[in-house]
């Protein structure tokens, strides 16, 4: 289900009327940055999860592409809340995007105005298995993850996701649900659009940002949950063969939330079911976003009044 209104540069437009020019710079050269944000129904009403962190990352991503925003962080936060309100209270997935618009063509984007849009829709399950399995079947992609010698990987940029799209399509056409990408050193980085974790001997392990992974907000939430609840964790490189030996594995992201992995390259993980640590993290995450986790919920939820 889509929303009814989309915000573009200070105005709301009907969904079907929210249009851009065919010569928009970002369409031709990938010069855009974006965020994925979720609005949840909580015990105290509807609330946006980690809104400030998402908007801060949007602004920081834009800086890497020399974008000058006409809106402050606070103004963009208000726009997200207003977009939710005008579309009706619901559990929305919210997509802010900033991009170099129509103007002068050519690789150099700087002569063009930066536009900002906010749209939303219902996105109940991002990684849905065709067979209805609880966990995902994944494969190691033949496409390597681009690294920060090629692109600023800390930016959540539209250009980076061409790399992701190739890996995801390869996985789907090969009969899997998702791809796992390696970096140029052969280390595990992330999924096509999610951070990745493994569990080995009751220790949660995720690759460092320096490996090329996005500095995921859901990733940092999971690491905070581990700290708060005494779950052992490490941030270090993961090898491909170590994935096969893992007791558990899962993907994380705003769209995917926490998605268990039950099979990698046709190899079942452990007994092929969702592990205890993954379930525990899912339960804690659900409590936080539903407003049932005390201080963490209070600090991370922005209520839509």
Structure explained in plain terms:
This protein has 305 residues and is an alpha+beta fold. It has 2 domains: 5-121, 2-Layer Sandwich (D-amino Acid Aminotransferase, Chain A, domain 1), CATH 3.30.470.10; 136-289, Alpha-Beta Barrel (D-amino Acid Aminotransferase, Chain A, domain 2), CATH 3.20.10. Helix content is 28%, strand content 28%. The strands form 2 sheets. Strands 8, 9, 10, 11, 12, 13, 14, 15 and 16 form a 9-stranded mixed β-sheet that branches. Strands 1, 2, 3, 4, 5, 6, 7 and 17 form an 8-stranded antiparallel β-sheet that branches. Strand 12, helix 5 and strand 13 (233-235) form a beta-alpha-beta unit. Helix 2 packs across helix 3. The two termini are 22 Å apart.
Element layout with pairings:
Layout lengths: L4 E4 L2 E4 L10 H5 L2 E3 L2 E6 L2 E5 L1 H14 L8 H15 L5 E8 L13 E8 L14 E5 L19 H14 L4 E5 L5 E4 L3 E6 L2 E4 L10 H12 L4 E3 L4 H6 L2 E6 L3 E8 L2 E2 L7 H14 L5 H6 E3 L2
Parallel strand pairs: 8-9, 8-15, 12-13
Antiparallel strand pairs: 1-2, 1-7, 3-6, 4-5, 4-6, 5-17, 6-7, 9-10, 11-12, 11-14, 14-15, 15-16
Helix pairs in contact: 2-3
């Amino acid at each position: 289900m889509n929303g009814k209104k989309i915000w573009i540069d200070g105005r709301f437009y009907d969904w079907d009327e929210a249009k851009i020019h065919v010569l928009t710079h970002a369409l031709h050269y990938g010069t855009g940055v974006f965020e994925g944000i979720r609005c949840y129904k909580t015990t105290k009403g509807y609330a946006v999860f980690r809104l400030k962190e998402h908007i801060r990352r949007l602004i920081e991503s834009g800086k890497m592409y020399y974008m000058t925003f006409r809106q402050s962080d606070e103004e963009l936060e208000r726009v997200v809340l207003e977009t939710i309100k005008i579309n009706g209270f619901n559990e929305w997935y919210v997509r802010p995007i900033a991009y170099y618009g129509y103007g002068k063509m050519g690789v150099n984007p700087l002569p063009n105005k930066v536009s900002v849009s906010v749209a939303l829709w219902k996105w109940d399950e991002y990684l849905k298995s065709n067979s209805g399995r609880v966990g995902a079947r994944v494969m190691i992609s033949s496409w390597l993850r681009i690294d920060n010698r090629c692109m600023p990987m800390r930016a959540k940029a539209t250009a980076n996701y061409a790399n992701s799209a190739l890996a995801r399509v390869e996985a789907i056409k090969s009969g899997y649900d998702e791809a796992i990408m390696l970096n140029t050193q052969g280390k595990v980085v992330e999924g096509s659009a999610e951070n990745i974790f493994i569990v080995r001997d009751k220790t949660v392990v995720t690759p460092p940002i320096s490996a090329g992974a996005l500095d995921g907000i859901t990733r940092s939430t999971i690491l905070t949950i581990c700290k708060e609840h005494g779950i052992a964790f490490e941030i270090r490189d993961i090898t491909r063969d170590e994935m096969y030996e893992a007791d558990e594995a899962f993907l994380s992201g705003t769209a995917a939330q926490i998605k268990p992995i039950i099979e990698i390259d046709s190899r079942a993980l452990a007994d092929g079911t969702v592990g205890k640590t993954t379930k525990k993290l899912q339960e804690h995450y659900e409590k936080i976003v539903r407003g049932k986790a005390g201080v963490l919920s209070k600090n991370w939820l922005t209520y839509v009044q």
